[in-house]
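New to this. Help decode the following:
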Amino acid sequence: MDERLRPVDTLKADSYTPTIPETWEGDMVRELFIGTHGSEDPTKATLPFLMAGGAIDAGHEAAIILMGDAAVLMSDTVVDSIHGVGFPPLKELVAKSVENKVPILV
């Protein structure tokens, strides 16, 4: 059995060194951010877009899924009214995601 697949508690700390499969080396990192909050919590509603923007800035590929209460974030009126505490306005973050062609799935 491949040691990477064995439960951690059966491994000896000094005998285990995690490795990255060769097929992963050099590939672009792909990150998926899931939003579940809408206008009822502006700060949490902002997080998937903030994180996707950070991923783009780091040269990664990003996608966003909006589910449940977050589905209202597809409305321009709602997006224009949301400004989370300590974050840029949501409309700026959404614009950055759209500009960088980040898929937004609902």
